[in-house]
Design a protein that fits this description.
Blueprint: H1 3-32, H2 41-51, E1 54-60, H3 65-74, H4 78-87, E2 88-94, H5 100-106, E3 114-118, E4 124-129, H6 134-146, H7 151-161, H8 166-179, H9 182-193, H10 198-201, H11 204-213, H12 220-227, H13 229-236, H14 238-253, E5 257-259, E6 265-267, H15 269-281, H16 287-301, H17 305-318, H18 325-338, H19 342-356, H20 363-376
Parallel strand pairs: 1-2
Antiparallel strand pairs: 1-3, 3-4, 5-6
């Protein structure tokens, strides 16, 4: 037989053998990891009832990076697979395809990945938002089976006992934070802080609680800090206290619009006036910058692009808002996507020109600015 032909056949056999081994390895990895059930949702619920098991649901999207990391690194782990396959009916749900789209509102999924433990009646037993490492993921699952450490258990306990037990409140806040349940977290922290006095807040534990969870200027604890700033500065330092006050007002100013049922937003004039009154009468650093960012954020939320572009141009000229490359690029980017008016687009293109003039600008930024400027200089159909 021709020597070259023999060599070629051997090479093919070698590749085929390696491919088979690779395939076998992939199958073994999948076999050792979590086995996901791809049945219809009502069948999943029936299966959970029949087997008296809870359902683990991985709520993901195709573009979610942390979702992919968990799928590759955690779900394929043999120990994870053994535990979940034994104790749960496991489901992966793309939340941008049916039935994920319908279930998204049912389970209030608004960030990815969202990890849910559900019973056969579609009640949420436990919940966590964000990627978890192996040990964290197993702990999350074991809490669901334990019952007393689940989010649902904490919800029920809160309904019965309120905020009388400090240790419970602290643990409940951690659960709510992990589940990204912002509205409930705000309710709990506001209710808990209603009974706190200045003397309590001057203790490090309570101050840390306020720093981490209080994000509303109307909160009782925050109002105490505003009225007694110097005492808190003496206790915790000027920068720490002034930063907390500044960023709380900044956040409040970015949330002056209410979302309507149809998904559109409407400016809450009463909330805006209350925000401006508090800002005016209290000692807050960089007040003008806070007002500037609030104006920009409100215009963008309302999709008032003329006001948005006018505000940014005005406040850049006054030096009240950040003019770094990342900020300039992010100011201009939504204009390219949403605005058709050529004059408005050209005004946003000037922000790209400003960015390109920054000394020592990295080439990647320079290229990105040039590309965005070119796009903004063109008419949008």
């Amino acid at each position: 037989m021709n020597t070259k032909l023999v060599a070629f056949m051997l090479l093919i056999l070698c590749f085929s053998s390696n491919a088979l081994k690779a395939g076998a390895t992939d199958e073994q990895t999948i076999e050792k990891g979590i086995k996901f059930n791809h049945s219809k949702w009502n069948e999943i619920l029936d299966l959970a009832a029949k087997n008296q098991k809870l359902i683990f649901m991985d709520c993901y999207t195709s573009w979610c990076g942390p979702c992919k990391i968990m799928a590759k690194k955690v779900f394929t782990d043999p120990e994870v697979g053994e535990f979940f396959n034994q104790n749960f009916i496991n489901v992966k749900m793309d939340m941008e395809k049916e039935p994920g789209v319908s279930l998204k509102s049912t389970f209030a999924v608004n960030a990815y990945p969202t990890l849910l433990i559900i019973d056969e009646h579609s009640n949420i037993i436990h919940k966590c938002v964000g990627a978890l490492q192996k040990d964290e993921f197993l702990k999350f699952a074991k809490e669901a089976l334990n019952g007393t450490a689940t989010l649902s258990h904490y919800h029920e306990k809160y309904k019965k006992e309120g905020v009388a037990n400090k240790e419970f409140v602290l643990q409940y806040l951690l659960k709510l934070e992990a589940a990204n349940e912002k509205e409930q977290l705000a309710e709990v922290i506001n209710r808990y802080s209603d009974d706190l006095k200045k003397e309590d807040l001057l203790e490090k534990e309570y101050w840390n609680l306020l720093k981490k969870y209080v994000h509303s200027i109307s909160n009782n604890a925050f109002q105490i800090v505003l009225k007694h700033q110097q005492e808190f500065i003496n206790a915790f330092g000027q920068k720490e206290v002034e930063d907390k006050i500044y960023f709380t007002f900044l956040r409040e100013g970015n949330q002056l619009c209410d979302k309507k049922e149809n998904g559109d937003f409407l400016l809450n004039s009463e909330k805006k006036q209350r925000f401006l009154n508090h800002l005016k009468k209290n000692k807050v650093k960089n007040k003008e910058a806070i007002v500037a960012y609030s104006e920009i954020s409100t215009a963008r939320t309302l999709k008032d692009w003329k006001a948005y572009i006018h505000s940014i141009s005005k406040y850049l000229e006054k030096g009240l808002i950040d003019n770094g490359p990342m900020s300039l690029y992010n100011y201009a980017l939504p204009v390219e996507a949403a605005v058709k008016d050529s004059d408005l687009r050209l005004k946003a293109a000037k922000w790209c020109e400003m960015g390109m003039k920054i000394e020592g600008l990295h080439k990647a930024y320079l290229d990105a600015f040039q590309k965005l400027k070119n796009q903004l200089s063109q008419s949008k159909k």
